[in-house]
Amino acid sequence: MTIKHYMPKIATIVSASLIFIMVCSCKSAPTTSTITDLNSINSATLISANGLSLFLSLDSTTYQPGQQVTIVIDETNTLSKTNNVPSSDQWPFSGLSVSPCGTNGFPFGVAIFQGDYTYTDISNATPLVIYDPSKLYPCPFVPAITAYDFVPFSDLAAENIDNEPATFAMNQSVTTTYYWTGSAKNVTQHNFEPGIYSVVAGDEWGNMVVLHFMVS
């Protein structure tokens, strides 16, 4: 498992046909919802009522067992002015993360599920454990964030923390090849077995995007 910062411009990745895409905003209806096939990547975008665009992509629609899966998530301001978005706690469901430490102060996260799920039944499913639970991770302290000030037409945002804003790119890339079952003392590593999987991106304002991939 590796986690890296992902720059706003996305390079062309493996061309593949789109299997299935479902997008939703579970807490508040979006003003616009669009499905995007960027350079034939398995991807989707949702534009929500607060002017933010939640983007999710995979580097393919089909994988072999033992092949690396790369997930990209990005939150962008669609407005031509600075967009001050207060922090919220309206996550579509628990278990979203961008690292073994959770969301790390980002207003979004991802999860992988074994099976074919949509936003209507995803809350009944259990996400796969994609970080080795037998390892200890040095998780940093993340102070409370009161709001995000997004730059116009950008995923750059200043996190308002105790009146000392720090600007970050609101995007992350998560790469995984395995998932784990069992407890920290008795853990088993697995390749993704043949079948269909659901990848979910969600943000703290209740928006959610679902993509699917096949392992064959």
Number of strands: 17
End-to-end Cα distance, whole Å, is: 21 Å
Mean model confidence by pLDDT: 83
Approximate strand percentage: 35-45%
CATH class bucket: Mainly Beta
Structural class computed from helices and strand pairing: mainly beta
Q: Which CATH architecture is right?
A: Sandwich
Largest sheet: 6 strands, antiparallel
Please give the order of strands in the largest beta sheet. Answer: 1-13-7-5-4-3
Shape: globular
| Tally of alpha and pi helices | 0
Helix content: under 10%
| Order of helical and strand elements | EEEEEEEEEEEEEEEEE
Number of domains: 1
How large, in whole angstroms, is the Cα Rg?
17 Å
Low-confidence stretches: 1-40
CATH superfamily: Macroglobulin (MG2) domain
The name of the CATH topology is: Immunoglobulin-like
